[in-house]
Amino acid sequence: MCVSICVLGQQNNTTKTSPSSKQSENQNSTDWTFNSSERQSEKKIIEDSTYLFSVKQLEGQYAKDWTLKSTDYVNYSLSDFKGRVLLIEFTGAGCHGCLKVQPFVNLLDSAHRKNENFKLIDLYQTNPDDNGRTRAYNLKHGIRVLSLLDDKKVYKQYGVTVIPSFFLIDKTGKIVYTHVGLFTIETFIKLNNEINKNL
Questions:
Q1: Which 3 state secondary structure label does DSSP give 174?
Q2: CA-wise closest residue to 146 among 134, 157, 156, 154
């Protein structure tokens, strides 16, 4: 269980985590507050790597295509969403920081769900044949957006090593905005404004 953001292990599907406690593991996933230790943990992980810089370098580039299976066992390709604004959240079951940002993600989904020009997708690093584990996780935590299962292929294509990570793709397939880590009200407003600007 990651306290704030999760740094994905390079050798396997495990994650490197900052120190945690039973209290943090049992925190309500709808708690919007981030304590100082979570903020410091997130800041240190990002500052100690070149990940944030590498993600920002992708802005302005066209997103690489992919085909993945959903939790409902339906295949989706990035090209299926061409002509729509697409927000991809790279996330993972057991990532505490990912649950922390979920209220913001739900708000974005509610605000734009009826707009046919927008789609929000959760992308989980897991075995595509995960026997319904991700679907059960989503139901447990009230995650209702389209969820796709990736066996590291797309994570590697986009160079994602930290979750949650967000990529906003415009109607032409170009990455126009990225965000790594926890949300504040300010970063939520910024992302929502970027969505509206590209609709």
A1: strand
A2: 134
Q: Are 152 and 35 in contact (CB under 8 A)?
A: no
User: Mapping DSSP to helix (H, G, I), strand (E, B) and coil, where does residue 95 land?
Assistant: strand
Q: Which two tokens stand for residue 154?
A: 């797309």
Sorted by where each starts, the structural domains of the chain and their CATH numbers stand as: 6-198 (3.40.30.10)
Q: For residue 69, give both structure tokens.
A: 């299976």
Along the 199 residues of the chain, how does pLDDT read in single tens digits? 454 568 776 433 334 444 333 343 334 333 444 555 555 555 555 555 677 788 889 999 999 999 999 999 999 999 999 999 999 999 999 888 899 999 999 999 999 999 999 999 999 998 767 779 999 999 999 999 999 999 989 999 999 988 999 999 999 999 999 999 888 899 999 999 999 999 9
The order of strands in the sheet holding 162-163 is 15-16, 6-8, 162-163
What pTM was estimated for this model as a whole? 0.80
Contacts of 37 (CB under 8 A, 6+ apart): 3
Q: List strand residue ranges (DSSP E) for the chain, in order.
A: 6-8, 15-16, 67-70, 75-77, 85-91, 118-125, 146-150, 162-163, 165-169, 175-180
Angstrom distance (rounded) from CA 132 to CA 69: 12
